[in-house]
Design goal:
Blueprint (H helix, E strand, L loop, with lengths): L8 H11 E3 L6 E3 L3 H9 L1 E3 L5 E3 L3 H7 L5 E3 L6 E3 H12 L2 E3 L6 E3 L6 H4 L2
Antiparallel strand pairs: 1-2, 3-4, 5-6, 7-8
Keywords: Acetylation, Metal-binding, Phosphoprotein, Zinc, Zinc-finger
Organism: Balaeniceps rex (Shoebill)
Pfam family, one: TRAFD1-XIAF1_ZnF
């Protein structure tokens, strides 16, 4: 999968066919002597803490952006909790009230950022 001089093509092709394999999972070119290790280290099925089975090489991306148990931070109180609990928590947390120092009214936390524009 690289450009090589035409004069070296036959020798290169022989070398590659003897020593290199294409991984059936990721299509990467892997030395034949390392293929077993590559499959075991990259493509073995592992179980995430959310109980989803996934290839080991995909686990970090899953944990960072797709896992329902990945850490997430509430926009209102900065507490960290599991992503799958975030929406319910933010509905509850944003509905709490705090007294406005300007007008003295109790304002829901979710409305505090917008309140200064309408505060008397």
């Amino acid at each position: 999968k690289k450009d090589i001089p035409a004069a070296n093509f036959i020798m290169h092709e022989i070398h590659c066919s003897r020593n290199i394999e294409v991984c059936r999972y990721c299509s990467e070119l892997i030395p034949k002597s390392e293929m077993k290790n590559h499959i075991e280290s990259e493509h073995v099925q592992v179980t995430c803490k959310c109980r989803m089975k996934i290839e080991k090489c995909l686990l970090k991306d899953h944990e960072a952006s797709a896992c329902p148990l990945r850490p997430a931070v509430c926009q209102y109180c900065d507490i960290q909790l599991a992503f799958n609990k975030l929406q319910d928590h933010e509905i509850y947390c944003g509905a709490r009230t705090e007294r406005c120092g300007g007008c003295g009214h109790n304002i829901m936390v979710k409305d505090l950022k917008e309140h200064p524009r309408v505060c008397g």
